[in-house]
Design goal:
With about 450 residues, this protein is mostly helical. It has one domain. The chain is built from 18 helices and two strands. A hairpin with a 2-residue loop joins β1 and β2. The longest helix has 30 residues.
């Protein structure tokens, strides 16, 4: 008589790095939604859609909000929100790496691949080192920001309240989340130069990219910086200074924004609104009252976003640089794309084109869907909302809280896709296949 074999076959679920990353963010959104829905996490009635949208906005470090945070969430709810922002800013991958390292110094192949895929590094050891530095740099900047803001707010508020404000705004600013305790954003502090510039320094630092920050710390010399660091820093300066001058020029006669301010306050607020569109989401002015030209400029800056491997969104500065130089190369009929005496590979150019096209398609379908769901909203308001969500910025024309629940779900999907990143989203949907078969070349008319 044969003895029956009761051994069970072990089943393993093999997920690609993009799938692990996508599921990780979804898990945190689900957990955050449930935690925010707890009775002691909010004051009064917080619906499931409110909790879900807030959790999604926090994990994707967008900052769009349909409830006033300071007046709706309790101390526990705000801690949950800050935790979600921190997770979203540092990235699920960085947390996964740190957790794995705390248990074992050696990462498994799947974990290494996920770090490599997300951090964009070919060296697995370097990718792991970067993941550690991301955590260290984040804590460093947030602690410095908290100390400075606590001192500044202690002049107006009690120490406990000042510390509370400082911790909240430091985490929100460095992670480019844009959440504020006041329903008016930073409008209450639009004349306080020290507070505004401190918060501005935090979100600009977070938006540069951790590789840039690491390079600055290690090299400490312009000549020794990598080509990538030089290009990003030069572009950031150009965008910030150019945006500042244009916003000031376009708004200094607008009585609803800068016209009634002193020239010092005009300069301060023009600077804030030239730098916040590239993902931070804070506002010291009512952006819905800005001129059409300023709104268009803001949309352009939101679309570009910040540096790669940063807390900012958008197509990223590096993508924008490669696109610009690709066009220049074509117009000059050069054989290769050259930037600062370095050549850019065709693969990098294709990647930049793919990121831009996927982001544009994402915005198009978001617009199309929201126009159907919200036929009474104006074109510019819907466009602003969709670009802000897809590029994880958080600036709004003030229509978010008035949108239908189905529209909020659509915006949540845009924020989620924007935080994952266009290429991660593409890799998640499509399975890459390489073929050894070469096909004949054909000409297609372009332009």
């Amino acid at each position: 008589m044969k003895t029956p074999n009761f051994s069970k076959t072990k089943k393993t679920v093999n997920l690609s790095p993009p799938q692990l990353l996508a599921l990780g963010f979804l898990s945190f959104i689900a957990i955050g939604t449930c935690l925010l829905k707890l009775p002691f996490a909010h004051l009064g009635n917080l619906s499931w859609i409110d909790a879900f949208f807030t959790a999604t906005s926090a994990v994707t470090i967008t900052g769009l909000s349909i409830v006033p945070i300071g007046q709706t969430l309790t101390a526990f709810g705000q801690i949950v929100l800050l935790s979600l922002i921190q997770i979203g800013g540092l990235g699920f991958t960085t947390f996964a790496v740190l957790a794995a390292l705390s248990l074992s110094p050696n990462l498994g192949l799947k974990e290494q691949l996920m770090v490599q895929n997300t951090l964009g590094q070919t060296s697995l050891s370097k990718a792991t080192s970067i993941a550690k530095n991301v955590f260290i740099y984040t804590i460093f900047f947030e602690v410095i920001g908290t100390i400075i803001l606590t001192i500044l707010w202690s002049e107006q508020l009690s120490f406990g309240t000042a510390l509370h404000f400082a911790i909240f705004y430091s985490i929100s600013a460095f992670n480019n989340a844009g959440f504020a305790l006041s329903p008016h954003g930073l409008i209450d502090f639009h004349r306080n130069t020290a507070i505004c510039l401190t918060i501005s320094s935090l979100y600009i630092s977070g938006g540069l990219g951790f590789l840039i920050l690491m390079d600055l710390k290690e090299k400490r010399s312009w000549k020794r910086l990598t080509t990538n660091s030089k290009l990003v820093l030069l572009t950031v300066i150009l965008l910030n200074v150019g945006g500042f001058l244009l916003i000031w020029l376009l708004e200094f006669n607008n009585p609803k924004t800068l016209a009634l301010m002193s020239w010092q306050d005009q300069a301060l607020n023009a600077w804030i609104h030239a730098t916040v569109p590239r993902s931070s989401g804070f506002n010291t002015l009512d952006v819905s009252q800005m001129t059409n030209a300023s709104t268009l400029l803001t949309l352009f800056l939101m679309f570009i976003g910040g540096g790669s491997l940063s807390t900012a969104g958008g197509i990223k500065i590096g993508t924008f640089i490669v696109l610009v130089f690709s066009v220049i190369t074509f117009l000059r009929r050069n054989d290769e794309i050259r930037i600062l005496n370095h050549a850019i590979s065709p693969e990098t150019a294709f990647k930049a084109l793919a990121v831009t096209l996927i982001t544009s398609v994402l915005i198009f379908f978001g617009l199309f869907g929201l126009f159907i769901l919200e036929p009474k909203q104006s074109f510019i308001d819907v466009l602003f909302e969709v670009v802000s969500a897809a590029c994880t910025v958080g600036l709004s024309h003030g229509i978010t809280a008035n949108l239908h629940p189905s529209s909020l779900i659509l915006l949540s999907l845009l924020m989620y896709a924007g935080r994952l990143g266009p290429l991660t989203l593409a890799y998640l949907i499509a399975t890459p296949k390489k073929s050894r078969v070469k096909h004949p070349v054909t000409d297609i008319q372009v332009g």
